[in-house]
Write a structure and sequence with these properties.
15 helices, 2 strands, globular, about 0% strand, two-stranded antiparallel ribbon, mainly alpha
Length: about 300
């Protein structure tokens, strides 16, 4: 015989115990404040995930894949060597550097390595917030992660281009001294400059969509104001210092010096490095000032 349970014997469902997890309340910051770098450190795993995502999709579904990281700087180097070096005679200005012959191909590629990184990082960082608008609207992540993570893929491309540069120096039998070990330190200056400009443009692009169209033109113009394909001494000596107000000018010249083992312009490097750090500080302060509006206007 089946037994029938007594409804009266069934007590009320147990009440779950209150959660002991701390309640996190997110409030927008106001005023001019530096971006919360401690929060960026706490979310470093997410920063790595975003950077890795960009690296994976950069050449996804392409015919040549990662070979583009080699083809691009090599093709640029060939064009610059033929057009600027030989046809416009720039090669004659740099053929002898401190008593040694430096091929124009090595000269130009030593500048392209850092410039291509700067170009790619600024361009992707400037568009990072608009490209990830759905993420900003739906969930909370530290907004600064997006422009920071945009440097991941250009860093990988830059490392590949650096290996190409070493191979080119071996081909032309260029001596390699211990100063080459300082190249990663110089690259850090390029990272600071690129992120400073990229973060500032990312924040401006959210509110003023004109910047989305201005960035390619701005970076292209910036290229010709940077000694990538020409030496600094093309300017009269009394005006040459003005070139170093461009943060990438001193950094690229220093990179060229450590790669070729030539003398270093310390004053130019300090001026350019100071401008790079200033740009990063201004970018972080402005980003912190306006980021509370991103989710509403992106």
């Amino acid at each position: 015989m089946s037994s029938v349970s007594d409804p009266a014997s069934t007590g009320p469902s147990p009440v779950p115990a209150p959660s002991t997890e701390p309640l996190a309340v997110l409030r927008p910051r106001s005023g001019w404040q530096l971006v919360d770098m401690a929060e960026l450190w706490r979310f470093r795993d997410l920063l790595w995930i975003f950077a890795l995502r960009d690296i994976k999709i950069r050449y996804k579904q392409t015919m040549l894949g990662a070979l583009w990281a080699v083809i691009q700087p090599v093709a640029q180097m060939i064009v610059f060597t033929l057009f600027f070096g030989k046809m416009l005679g720039v090669e004659d200005r740099i053929e002898q550097i401190e008593g040694r012959v430096v091929p124009y191909a090595v000269f130009s590629l030593s500048g392209q390595v850092l410039w291509n990184f700067f170009n790619a990082t600024v361009t992707t960082s400037a568009n990072s917030l608009l490209a990830n608008a759905e993420i900003l609207r739906k969930i909370y992540v530290p907004r600064i992660i997006l422009p920071f993570s945009s440097a991941g893929a250009p860093l990988v491309d830059g490392a590949v281009a650096f290996v190409v540069l070493l191979g080119l120096m071996l081909y032309y039998q260029q001596p390699m001294g211990w100063t080459i070990l300082l190249a990663p330190v110089v690259a850090l200056g390029a990272i600071v400059a690129a992120l400073g400009v990229g973060i500032l443009l990312a924040a401006l692009s959210v509110s003023y969509r004109d910047f989305k169209y201005m960035v390619p033109f701005m970076v292209q113009t910036w290229f010709f104001l940077t000694p990538v394909i020409y030496p600094v001494d093309v300017l009269p000596e009394k005006y040459a210092w003005m070139l170093y107000l461009n943060p990438m000018a001193g950094i690229i010249e220093t990179h060229r010096s450590v790669m070729l083992g030539t003398s270093l312009n310390v004053d130019g490097l300090l001026l350019s490095a100071g401008m790079a750090v200033s740009l990063l500080v201004v970018g972080l302060f402005y980003f912190g000032r306006v980021e509370r509006r991103f989710a509403d206007v992106v």
